[in-house]
Amino acid sequence: MGDLDKEAILEAWLAMVIAIDAQRVTTELPFNEAVVCNFLKNHQDEEVTATKLCQKMKMQKSLMNRTLDNLENKGLIKRQSSAKDKRKKIVTLVWDENNLYFRQHQDILAYVDRIIDHLEDICLSDLRKIFESITAATNSFK
User: Considering 17, 102, 134, 138, which has the largest number of Cβ atoms within 10 A of its Cβ?
Assistant: First the structure.
């Protein structure tokens, strides 16, 4: 790949990030809190601990604890001892149509719908594979 191609990809990437950030899709919750809630929503059938969240979200333990404290104070998560190992604290999302995260999640999905409406010629499964490949490549860097 030539330098011009790399520059064009970098320019397109930065333009996309700036455009998404300008939309402020996580207006009611800080970004870290919204990302943690989304992870918990998508892993409701698993025992998720703060340690697992730190690994998945690439957050320091102190930041994760602050984030979880804030979410718990807002009534968006619960922490309870694991049935299998009482020493482990399991974090679960409180999925309620009246809570802040539920409303914000619906707004984000509407935003994604608006983006998809503009991607007429792009196969969405290919787009998802590209995002997953970029994530896997990024996660492989030390």
Answer: 102
Question: How far, CA to CA in Å, does 100 sit from each of 52, 120, 121?
Answer: 24, 32, 34
pTM, full prediction: 0.78
Q: For 77-113, b where at least 16 C-beta lie within 10 A, e where not — what string?
A: beeeeeeeeeeebbbebbeeeebbbbebbeebeeeee
The answer to whether 138 and 60 have CB atoms below 8 angstroms apart is: no
**Considering the domain 3-140, what is its CATH architecture?**
Orthogonal Bundle (1.10)
| Domain layout of the chain by residue ranges | 3-140
> Would you say 50 and 62 are in contact if contact means Cβ atoms under 8 Å apart?
no
User: Nearest CA to 17 among 3, 31, 4, 38?
Assistant: 31
- Residue 40 tokens, joined: 């918990």
Model pLDDT for residues 77-124, shown as the tens digit of each residue: 999 998 888 889 999 999 888 888 888 888 888 888 888 888 877 777
